[in-house]
Design a protein that fits this description.
Elements (H helix, E strand, L loop, with lengths): L1 H21 L13 E6 L1 H4 L9 H9 L3 E5 L5 H6 L1 H4 L5 E7 L2 H5 L4 H16 L4 E5 L11 H11 L2 E3 L21 H19 L3
Parallel strand pairs: 1-2, 1-3, 3-4, 4-5
Helix pairs in contact: 1-9, 3-9, 7-8
Length: 206
């Protein structure tokens, strides 16, 4: 039984790495300054729906063997996140920043142009410190994702990396969700699987 569980876990990791590699997405420029890894965003970063220690930020921290500052704030729009960027990210000597925002903008009907102008400003200001940025995209469309191209455009403009559509095949699966928006422990494990390759690539020594 233990061996079967181990094989299943290994299969999930391999599929996640393949999912990341096959995606034709921007890759982040390596960091040139800073010391801390920070996850910045909304309730998905905060870990709403997970049991203690099973949010994706905690999972990533244990996997890479290094602390990750969780700067998630439930309910944040890109405007709210931008307002706290200085205190919660830039003042903490960032080296790599995972940025996951946009879902609450959609729910609150913030114009798409404003959402991605804010997101670009966040990425640009982080990059100006010498830190690397990994943007994490959220699919907000039932049939067509109006945000997908916008995340990619911001990533390319700011030399950030991109992990697209982070809730693909998680959202709507009752076995992976706590509610209609937030994953459960199993869902957050998949989120961590998808972000991990991008994070490890930025932490590699040249």
């Amino acid at each position: 039984m233990t061996r079967n569980k181990g094989l299943a876990a290994l299969t999930v990791v391999i599929l996640a790495v393949f999912w990341y590699i096959r995606a034709d997405v921007p890759e982040a420029e390596k960091p040139t300054a800073g010391t801390n890894i920070i996850a910045f965003g909304d309730s998905l970063v905060e870990g709403h729906g997970a049991t203690p220690g099973n949010d994706f930020v905690s999972l990533l921290s244990r996997r890479i063997g290094a602390p990750i500052i969780n700067a998630g704030q439930g309910g944040d729009t890109t405007s709210a996140a931008l307002a706290r960027l200085d205190s919660d990210v830039l003042a903490r000597d960032p080296r790599v920043v995972i940025v996951l925002l946009g879902g609450n903008d959609f729910l609150r009907r913030v114009p798409k142009e404003q959402t991605f102008a804010n997101l670009a400003t966040i990425a640009e200001r982080i990059r100006s410190t010498g830190a690397a940025v990994v943007l994490v995209g959220v699919n907000v469309g039932l049939w067509r994702d109006p945000y997908g191209d916008e995340y990619e455009n911001v990533a390319r403009r700011t030399s950030a990396g991109l992990v697209p559509d982070i809730l693909d095949d998680i959202l709507g699966d009752q076995h992976l969700m706590t509610d209609s928006i937030h994953p459960n422990d199993r869902g957050y494990q998949i989120v961590a699987d998808r972000v991990e390759p991008a994070l490890r690539e930025l932490l590699k020594e040249d």
